[in-house]
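pipeline: protein-struct stage 2 | run 1193 | Magnesium transporter MgtE
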Amino acid sequence: MTVLEKKTTDRLQDSLVQVQRLIERHHLVEELVHRQDMPRHALVEDLVHKQNLVELKQKLEQLHPADIAYILEALPLNERLLVWELVKSESDGEILLEVSDAVRETLIESMDAHELVAAAETLDADELADLAPDLPRQVVYEVMGALDDEEREQLQSALSYEEGTVGALMDFELVNIRADVSCEVVLRYLRRFDELPHHTDKIFVIDDDEVLKGVLSIRKLLVSDPDAEVSEVMATDVVTFHPEDDAEKAALAFERYDLVTAPVIDDAGKLIGRLTVDEMVDVIREESDSEVLNLAGLKEEEDLFAPVIDSLKNRWAWLAINLCTAFLASRVIGVFEGAIQHLVALAALMPIVAGIGGNSGNQTITMIVRALAMGQLQVAQAWRLWRKELGVSVINGVVWGGVIGSVAWWLYGSFPLGLVMTAAMTLNLVLAATLGVLIPVLMQRAGRDPAVGSSVLITAFTDSGGFFIFLGLASLFLM
């Protein structure tokens, strides 16, 4: 963690602790106010109660909408709604954009239609497009009716593209100029703006038909000869996107080329919007969170304080699969029950073989899923990658299997047991490497997300496989 990340985390944690303390004080005073046996102090307590709410509200007013979103996600439902009621109404829209989908649902359910309309009306067309799928349809219609023709057209355009595409994320606020004007004219034009659109690092150069011809960076504009024409100083080699492009691939391009903004063009080359780095950072974060959840077998991001039934719906499917695989592993052990009774050391050692296999398989599968997601691995290259992973697993198996085999020999005084331990660990690591490559590649070929449940599957196979290999070898060579 960098120094900046640590400072940000510490600041968020400090704000959360302060809000939680104010909420605790609020609940304490509220309890005292409602006691029937203290009528003489009721007025004083009521004043303290109101003052506490004012203090909490003032604290929230000092926070950025993203920080408030963080706090809301960390609070139980009743405390979350208390804080939500105290937030300034003009910040509602921004906060709804920042919170997770699960928390956003609880906040929207607590709001009246007119409150939702007021919150949505504070957002730009591209931001409203992000929020619209979660809003009641009537609210969306009412908000669209209040927009001017240009904003309504922009919103309809953004909503027409599928979620996860560039078109659904593009921003319509941008600055464009013609190529046949001087830099001095451009500077005078920029001074007419009260404020430039956020993340304006470049100006888009278009022709009379609004076809993109190039870009002029603000830095280049400031140091260029004022009499030079834009066509002489603009850059024509531009990274562009189409609205149908995948947002994740666009985010990777932003990371690769250190972009702040990039133009979005249609098939005719006409400039229709732009992508900004803040949207791409959100895409990268959401994709990272999604991969972590999918590897664990979770369907979606979960509200920490969601009702029990909601959490059950999110988790039950892969837990059911895990139960079946665990039962299979237990049956494998049952087949070798006689061997375990004959040599009790097997019961103590077999979890080591299974555990190491599971860890190794998760390392491989995480690397493969990441490579597939970034487009660095094609299915045709799986064979070459498997051979490489096979070499790594054999070396690790011989080295670390030899170490644990020596420990088994020293603990139980049996050299053959040490050899069996070494061989079993090596074979299970080979199995883990094979499945670590095979599972995500086959899921990708079948059109499924290779991250969904991969960790659960690899652990299941290496557990059952590890038990079978170790107990099988023990039955053959030690009985």
